[in-house]
Design a protein that fits this description.
By secondary structure, this protein is α+β, with helices and mostly antiparallel strands. It folds into 2 domains: 90 residues, Beta Barrel (OB fold (Dihydrolipoamide Acetyltransferase, E2P)), CATH 2.40.50.140; 165 residues, OB fold (Dihydrolipoamide Acetyltransferase, E2P), CATH 2.40.50. 24% of the residues lie in helices and 32% in strands. The protein is built from 6 helices and 14 strands. A 5-stranded mixed barrel has the order 1-3-4-6-5. Helix 4 packs across helix 5. The longest helix is centred in the last third of the chain and has 15 residues. The radius of gyration is 18 Å and the shape is globular.
Length: 263
């Protein structure tokens, strides 16, 4: 095994759990280094197997040990020693401005630009701002979803005991949008959207009401909050990018950057 490197990283997102024959299920985590200079992909993390003291949320600061595997050429990827994960600082210590400054330098001009960067440098993570007013939230019943979406959303049946299976999803959730004037449609694989769906069901006791509230949240409120989308590619399909997380803020990253250039 290669020599271990100590990493300190702020968490941006946890993607939806994926099944693993050896590890039950794993979660891919997108993060930035503590200084915000590099994006990181931390894997494989069995998040539901972590102790309460190790579990992290968005923008928490963690320290862990990992190495870059020769089998994964994506420059951002680090194979993490799960037992080394340590929660260092909680997200509430960061202002909205500090959070934006962590990730704003990783915004790319468009999804097409990210795809071109992948061809040139193997870049596999990037943040895209959809064209203003172009975002549409789409709900598709699993029975009507394509095979890849069904794999992600119904994987719970593949999980091995004794880990309690996740709730089965009835829907795949997508965003259609334009980026740099080009149209795109991608499934949202951020764990958060599925958690929101189940939470709304418990809160309102009605699937119809829960879906309505989810559409309000992801179709109207979130796109109005300076929405930026985190994209990552797959190891086996490096040309194919998927939505692994959503970033939003009351502050505009564009305005933050302009203000920073004045001083």
């Amino acid at each position: 095994m290669p020599a271990l490197t100590t990493l300190r990283a702020r968490i941006l997102v946890k993607a939806y759990p994926q099944p693993s024959k050896k590890l039950e299920e794993t979660v891919c985590v997108a993060a930035v280094t503590e200084d915000g200079k590099r994006m990181l992909r931390l894997y494989p993390i069995r998040f539901r197997r972590l102790s309460a003291e190790q579990r992290f949320d968005r923008f928490d600061l963690i320290e862990c040990k990992g190495y870059q595997s020769s089998g994964d050429v994506r420059p951002e990827s680090y194979h993490i020693e799960e037992t080394s994960i340590r929660l260092v600082d909680k997200a509430n210590s960061l202002s909205n401005l500090a959070r934006i400054k962590l990730w704003q330098d990783h915004i790319v001009g468009s999804l097409t630009a990210l795809e071109e960067a992948q061809k040139l440098t193997k870049q596999s993570l990037g943040i895209v701002k959809p064209d203003i007013g172009s975002v549409k939230f789409i709900v598709i019943p699993i029975a009507e979803a394509n095979e890849e979406d069904r794999e992600f959303m119904q994987q719970q049946s593949l999980l091995e005991k004794p880990l309690t299976p996740l709730e089965k999803s009835e829907f795949a959730f997508k965003y259609s949008f334009t980026s740099g004037g080009k149209s795109h449609e991608h499934t949202i694989l951020d764990w958060e959207v599925q958690a929101a769906w189940f939470s709304f069901q418990r809160q309102y006791g009605s699937k119809e009401k829960a879906l309505d509230m989810l559409k309000q949240e992801y179709g109207k409120r979130i796109p109005a909050q300076n929405l930026h989308i985190i994209f990552g590619n797959q190891h086996v399909r490096p040309w194919q990018f998927i939505i692994i997380g959503l970033l939003r803020s009351r502050l505009s990253p564009d305005e933050v950057k302009k203000q920073g250039q004045l001083f």
